[in-house]
User: Fold these one by one.
Assistant:
Number 1:
Amino acid sequence: MRKINAYICPALHHTITVCKDEGATSMFIKCPTCEATGKNEKAISMMGNVHQHFTPTHEWYKPTLEDWNNLNADIANKSLLSQLELHVKRGGLLFRPIK
C-alpha cells in the first residue's frame, strides 16, 4: 500500500513522503528545505490527510543489508547507528530523499 503524507514547517515548506514499507513513521522531521539553508525548523506530519495523488520527494523505508552497510560507512557516530538499529527493530522506518 502506497500511502502519501505531507510534512509542513513553520516557514510553510512542504515535504511529500511515501511509505515504501510497512512500519512506523515520525510525527516530526527536520524540514529538508530549511536544513539546506542552515535553518533548523521542524516540520509536522499531516497524518496522511492529503491527496494521494501528490508526487513524493522522500520515502520512509525499512533498510536492507546494503542500506545498513551504506549507513555504517556514512555515519561516524556509532551510538546514533545503534539507536537507528533499535528504532528499526521496534518497527520504525527510516527517512531519505527519493533518488
Number 2:
Amino acid sequence: MNKPAWYYLVLLILAGEAVFILPFVLPRIFRPTVLDVFEMTNLDYNLGVAIYGIIAMVSYPFGGPLADRFPPRKLIAVALWLTALGGILYARYPDLDTLKVLYGYWGFTTIFLFWAPMIKATRVWGGDTSQGKAFGLLDGGRGLTGALFGVLGVFVFAAFLSSDVQEVTLAERQNAFAYVIYVASAIIVFIGILVWLFMKSNVDETKILVDRITAKELKQVLKLPSVWLLMVIILCSYVGYKITDVISQYANEVMLYDQVKSAQVGTFLQFLRPTTGILVGLLVDRFRITFWLLSSLVFCVVGGIFFATGVIGPSTTVLFFMSVVIIGVGVYAARALYFGVMRKGRIPLVLTGTAVGLISLVGYTPDIFAGPAYGYFLDTYPGEQGHQYVFWMLAGFSAMGAIAAFIYFKLYNKN
C-alpha cells in the first residue's frame, strides 16, 4: 500500500496539537495564570475539565466507528473549526457552570470528530514498516507545535502587560490572556482550512474504510488481548501526562518562580515532547518497539519518585530540571509509542477506528478523575506536601502501566 505524501503527515501533526491548544495546552503552560484570571481553585477548574472527560468517554466508542466510515480530512477540519469557535466563550472567562458546558463541548469536537481519524490516518501513513516512525513523528511534531504555541503565547501575554507581571491588576492579566486565546483560535481556524484543502490521501479508501460496523467487528476487536492491555497501558500513561500539567505550578509554588518564569518552565517541558517523539520515531523501528514502551513507563516511575520524596526544592535547581527531563522523556515516549504497537498486537488496519474508540473508552478516563484528584491534593495540602501526593500518584500509576507493558512485550515480542 502506497503511503500518503509527506505533507499529509505535516498537516496531521499541526491539526493533532492545534485542536487541543485551547482546552489543554494553554492551561498547562499558563497554569498559575489560568487559575488567577478565572478566579478559581485547582479543584473548581478541574471539575470543569472533568466534564470534558465524561463527554469524551461517550464520544470514544461512537467516534471510533465514524473514523472507519468517513475520510479523516473532513472530520478533522470540522473538528478544528468547531473547537476554535469555543475560544470566543473561553476568552470571556465564564463562571464554573459555563466552563463545564464549554469543556463538554470541546469533549465532543476533539474526540467524537477528531481523535480516531487522527490515529487511523497516522497508522495509514506508517504502512507496514514505519509505525514507530509515524507515531513518533506525530507526537514529536505535535509537541513542537504545542511548544511553539507556548512561545507565542508567552510572547503575546508579556507584550500586553503594561508593567511587571507582579504589579499589574487582575483586569490587565485577564485582558492579556484573552489576546493569547484569540490568537490561538485564529491559528486553529487557519490550520483547519489547510487540512480541508490539502490533506488528501493517495491510498485506496476501499482498503481502509467499511460501510458499517456491526457486532461481529466489535467482537473481533474485543477478542484481542492487545486491546485490553492497551487500555491499561494508556490509562496509566495518561495519568502521567495529565500530571505534567502541574509542573509549571510546582515551579511557581515550590521553586518560587514568578508567573512568567513558571510559564517558561511549562514551555521547556513542551519542547521535551518534540525532542523525545522525533528521536523515538527515527530510532524505534530498528529495535523492539514494545521494549521501548516498557522503558518509557519505568522512566515515569523514577521521575515521579524524585518529586514525591521531597528532595526537590528552591535550592536544587539542577535536580529539578533533571527530574523534569526524566518525567518528560518517559511521558512523551509512552505517548509516542502506545498506539504504535497496534500492528504488533495484530489489530486489523481497517478496524483501527473501532479499536481506538474502545481502547480510549478506558484509556482516557483520567480526563475524568485525574484533574479533580490532583486538584484535591493541591488544595487540601497547600505547597510542597500536596505536590508530593500528586507525584506519588504518578509513580503508582506508571508502575501499573509498566506491568501491563511487560506483559504486552512478552506476548508480542516475537511477532
Number 3:
Amino acid sequence: MIDFLFFGKAKEERKQLHAIAHFLAKRVHYGRDVLPEKLLERLAQARELCAEALRITTPAPRRTEILLQLEKSYADLLRTERHHGRKENAEVALVAIVLALGVRAYILQPFKIPTHSMRPTLLGILNQPESENPPSWPIRIFHLVVEGKSYHQAIAPKDGQIVSVREGRLLGWVPWTTTEIVSDHWKQTLISSLPEAREGGLRVRSGDRVKAGDVLANFSSATGDHLFVNKFIYHFRKPTRAETFVFTTERIDGIESGLRLRGIEGSQYYIKRCVALGGDTLQVQPPELWINGSPATDPACQLVASKRDGYPGYTFGQTYLTNPNDTYRVPGRDYWAMGDNSPNSYDSRGWGAVPAANLVGRGAVVYWPFTKRWGWIH
C-alpha cells in the first residue's frame, strides 16, 4: 500500500514538472526578444532545475526538493501562467480574425442571392403560398437546415376585426423582423417581413373582419442561394465569356439613379453572367443571343437559349438591344452582363456595360442550401 502511494506521488510530481517545463519553454520562446536579460536568466535557471528533476537518475527526494524550490524561488514566474494563457488565447483569436477578414477581403467572400435574375442557375428568396398545413416540426427543421426552407402559417383563433398589419421585432426586441396581425381581441405573429408575407399570400388588411379558423397566411420561404465569390482570380486574369461574375454598381448611373429614387444610397453588389467582352457586337434574336454576327456558342448561353429545364431564352431589352436589328458594341475594357432569367432580369440591356473597375470576382461555389444547385457554379 505504501509503495503504491509513493508511486502515485512520484507520478503526480513528474506530471507537474512536465507542465512547468512546458510553460517555461513557451515563455522563453515567445518572449526571447522582449523580456529583460535578468528575467531570461531566471527562466533559464528554472528550466535547468526542471531538466534535472525529470532525469531518470534523479532520486525521488531530490525531485520533491526541486519542485518545492521552484514553487518557492520562482513562484513569480509561474503565477503568470493563467494570465499568459489568456494572452496567448487572445493572440490566437486575433490572428484567426485577421486571417478570416483577409480571406474575405482578398480571396473568398460570401454572398446571398436576393432575386431571381439568374434563375434557374441560381435562386433568390422565394415566398410562395402553400395549400397544405406545415409539416411536423422534425421535417420542418430538416427542410430548414438542408434546403433553407421555412414555413409560416397564421390562423384566426376567434372572430374579430383586424386593427393593423405591421412589422415588428421578435419578442419585441430581438432584431428579427416579424409581421404582426393585430385584431381587437388577439394578435398573430409571423417570423417574416411584411413584403415577404404579402408575396406569400397574406391578404388581410386593417379593417377586415375575420372568423375563427380563417387562414390568414399559409406560405413557405426559401432562402436565396448562398455562395462564395472568388475575388482572387481577377488579379491574374480577366473574366471570360459565359462565366458568372459579381460586380458593384458604382458609377453605373442607370442603376444608382434608380436606387436613389428608392432612398438607397451607395453602390450594391450584382451577380450576372458575363456574356460578352470588350469589342464584341451584340444582338438579340429571341430566344438566342448573337455575338459578332452569329449565335453565342458558349454552353451556358446555349442552355439559356434552349428554353429547356426552366431556361426562358434571351429577350429584348428596355434600353439596349430592344429589337432584332438593334446592335451594341461593348466598349474596349468593359463587360456585358445578362441574367439567365432574361425576361425578368434588369441587366446591361437596361443600363449598359460593366466597367472593369467594378469587378469583384467570379461566382465560385454554392455552399448552402444543399439542393441540386449546391456545388460549383457553371
Number 4:
Amino acid sequence: MIKVEFLGPIGEKSIEIEATTLEDVATYLQGLESVKNWLDKCAVAVNDEMTNDLTKVLKSGDKVSILPPVCGG
C-alpha cells in the first residue's frame, strides 16, 4: 500500500492505495472530485523527495505527498 497525504489547503485526509508507479497514483487521484482540480497546481514528493517523474516506481510503504502552491512573506 502507498500512503498519499494532502498538505495545506487541499483539506483531505491521508489515504492508502495500491499503486506501482506515480502515474497510477495520478490516475487514481483524477477520479477524486475533491482533489482533481488541485493536481495541475501541485508539486509532488515521494518519501520527502520532490519529483515529477510519473514513471517513478513505488513500493509498499512509500509516502506520496501532494503539495499545493504556497505564498508567504
